[in-house]
Amino acid sequence: MTTDPSESSDLLRRAGQGDAQALGRLLEAQRKRLRRMVRLRLDPRLQGRIDPSDVIQEAYLEAAERLAEYLRDPKMPFFLWLRFLTGQKLLELRRRHLGTQARDVARELSIYQGAMPEASSACLAAQLLGKRTAPLEAAIRAEMKLRLQEALNGMEPLDREVLALRHFEQFNNAETAQLLGISESGASSRYLRALKRLKDILGQAPGFFEK
Prior knowledge:
There is one protein chain. The radius of gyration is 18 Å and the shape is globular. The protein has a two-stranded antiparallel sheet with strand order 1-2. The protein is built from ten helices and two strands. The two termini are 31 Å apart. With 211 residues, the chain is mainly alpha-helical. A hairpin with a 2-residue loop joins strand 1 and strand 2.
């Protein structure tokens, strides 16, 4: 695997020339980050029915088929292209499994003239609590999750998305602003506002911030 830009560029060039091994290395290097995105944006109604690895594999198959098309006119960085394809697969799976229940455009965010599944409050709350469950008893954890969901639901959708991109998908502020079509100062203020709101709630959980 590689995260070095020059090496990634070389692998992409070789992949475009038909080097399957180079393409495999290039795709594998993005798997962990894409898996985190899928877990965050997978519709809660489909959790347990769809494996994130299967979603990513479908996206990788399409990426292999469309690589030449991408390289002819790369309008976005390679990782964002893969992320876009993966988001499209999530939307397809949601519509396939849920039918008319999935037709909720309010839960899709327009990015790069396409759509990306919104990070739901339930998924965000679960992720926030998921890494720090040991000090929390089940009853306290359940209460905290409910309070987090209520706080997240009370945020503007754009604030939730900034939180998801910055805190969970690990985009920097400039990348987040570009993805959402807002100013960097706007992205920063939204992120800080969302964090403060959540920290006020999480700070009330015994032991949550203990190492």
